[in-house]
Amino acid sequence: MAKFEFPRDHIQATIKHLTQAGAEYADIRCEQTLSEHLLVMDDDILPAQHDHQVGVAMRAFYQGQWGFAHTAVLTPESLQQTADTALSLAKSVSKLKTSPLQLCPVEPVQARYFSPWEIDPFTLPLEFKLEPLVWSLEALQGPNEIKRLMAYFDAHKRYKWFCSSNGSDIEQTFLECGAGFEVTAQKGNVVARRSYPNSHRGTLKQAGFECIKTLDLPSAAPTIQKEVLDLLDAPTIKPQQAPIVIDPTQAALQLHESCGHAAELDRALGYEMSFAGGSFLQPEHLGKLWYGSPLVNIVADATCAEGVGSFAYDDEGVPGQRVELVREGLFMGYLSSRQTASTLGLRSSGGAMRANGWSALPLIRMTNVNLEPGDASLEELIKDIDHGYLLSTNKSWSIDSLRLNFQFSTEIGWEIEKGKVGRMVRSPIYSGKTPEFWAQCSGIGGPADWQIWGIPNCGKGEPMQVIPTGHGSSYVRFENVQLGSAA
User: Fold this and answer.
1) What gap in Å lies between CA 467 and CA 355, rounded to an integer?
2) Rounded to an integer, what distance in angstroms lies between the CA atom of residue 396 and that of residue 402?
3) Does the structure show a pLDDT above 70 at 129?
4) Shortest CA distance to 161 belongs to which of 262, 31, 260, 47?
5) Fewer CB near the terminus (10 Å): N or C of the chain?
């Protein structure tokens, strides 16, 4: 992707125009994005999907209120008209006599940042990127029970230039890659699905094509084929309470749904209530509510290697940082913005504002919400379980609007009997209430098993913005969990 040359002089002049017209603060975010999506279904290679976008977003702050506008037409006249629209909207809102908003301060920064990568996928021939997908599906074919095969590849390259009236001038370039496959099998009325390396389009990392090579999709295909065929004859779980161990693939979604969204401060303040919901983690609970057991330490880390929620600066020019959400089981912090942090009386923003493109208003979004590793091996986590289950790879989820009551099913599970992993089980399901569930956390795997996963399709806002988030975890053990079967 050749970098688009934004009209810098005109952009800087537009910032000056906004402040001269009365804006107390203004920022402009220029973005260029390039995306590629490849999909192979059974024996068919579908046409590659490419998307290339360039545009500019503007925010104006006037008498304690925001105005926002955007444009893909970058002439001086269009830029000034867009700026006038943003400021006019802020002025209109200020007349409604709503309470003026306050913003936490942010230091002006001049910076350039590139996320690390070795192989840029946009420089590679299409057939080279398709090879691991095609080879994976060839290795999965054969048995009559195999009914559907899918393999996918995703790549995104994003360039952002942020400048503001307080003197910030920040350029960032990010590269993300991901791939995976899934296989569906059927015998009679029984249908089973297995995905690799994870469900929901595999995994996505802030890296180049080298991360696809390390996944080695074709080598994993025979194991996944055997598992999906074995699932067709595997028993289901009868309703019961038992200890469970969830692997890092499932822990990623558990963190995403029951902690990450719950810790978004705009939800806690009710800004998202009418569409995406709120949060049981209310401001009065900060520093007082026991979210989990003393083993539980959860952080929002925008500095995590390979995490798709990593960046040097967010879309308000706030540095990417590591924010404690839960410390030794105690709820300690939020994902926040300059505005919401000020509302809560915090000294600074947590740096969690991101937009999914040039035409979108920044929202509080998860960075990389990670469960810190413990010190146990998988063998140590299961050795004293007389009867329980090991669960892997999310299949479906449901959680209420306050991120409190949840139910998850996984593609596959195994019985644990007398401290040993035993026979396979099909479509296990578990449910709970978030603080009670995390209070039952009795063991966390060590750094050797810790992995970070990319969730490519986190949705929030109205209109909807879809953005990738990262989640890292090891194996996690929980006691007395309600179990059943989704089959």
Assistant:
1) 8
2) 18
3) yes
4) 31
5) N
The helix (run of H) or strand (run of E) holding residue 435 is helix 434-439
Instruction: For 167, list phi and psi in degrees, rounded to 5.
Output: 105, 5
DSSP string across 163-177? EETTS-EEEEEEEEE
Q: Angle, to 10 degrees, between the axis of helix 8-20 and the axis of helix 76-94?
A: 30
Q: What is the sign, positive or negative, of the torsion defined by CA atoms of 269, 271, 272, 277?
A: positive
In angstroms, the first-to-last Cα distance of the chain is: 46
% of the chain residues with pLDDT over 90: 96
Residue 41 · residue 149 · CB < 8 Å: yes
Classify the C-alpha dihedral 263-269-273-279 as positive or negative: positive
Q: How do the domains of the chain map onto residue ranges?
A: 8-231, 240-485
pLDDT tens digits, one per residue of 340-387: 999 999 999 999 999 999 999 999 999 999 999 999 999 999 999 999
Digit-coded pLDDT (tens) for 183-216 = 999 999 999 999 999 998 999 999 999 999 999 9
Sequence-ordered list of residues with C-beta below 8 angstroms from that of 123, at least 6 positions apart, any chain: none
Q: Which of 210, 373, 194 is nearest to 297 (CA)?
A: 373
Grouping H, G, I as helix, E, B as strand and the rest as coil, residue 332 is coil
Rounded mean pLDDT of the chain? 97
Please check the confidence at residue 1 and state whether its pLDDT lies above 80. no
pTM over 0.85: yes
DSSP 356: S
Nearest to residue 383, comparing CAs of 484, 243, 249? 243
- Residue 98 confidence class, pLDDT cut points 50, 70, 90: confident
For residue 35, give Cα distances in angstroms to 48, 63, 112, 114, 351: 10, 39, 22, 17, 25
Residue-level pLDDT at 274: 74
Strand positions, DSSP E, 338-433 = 353-354, 363-364, 369-371, 387-399, 405-417, 420-426, 428-433
Asked if 249 contacts 198 with a C-beta cutoff of 8 angstroms, the reply is yes
Q: Tokens 């990262």: give the residue.
A: 470
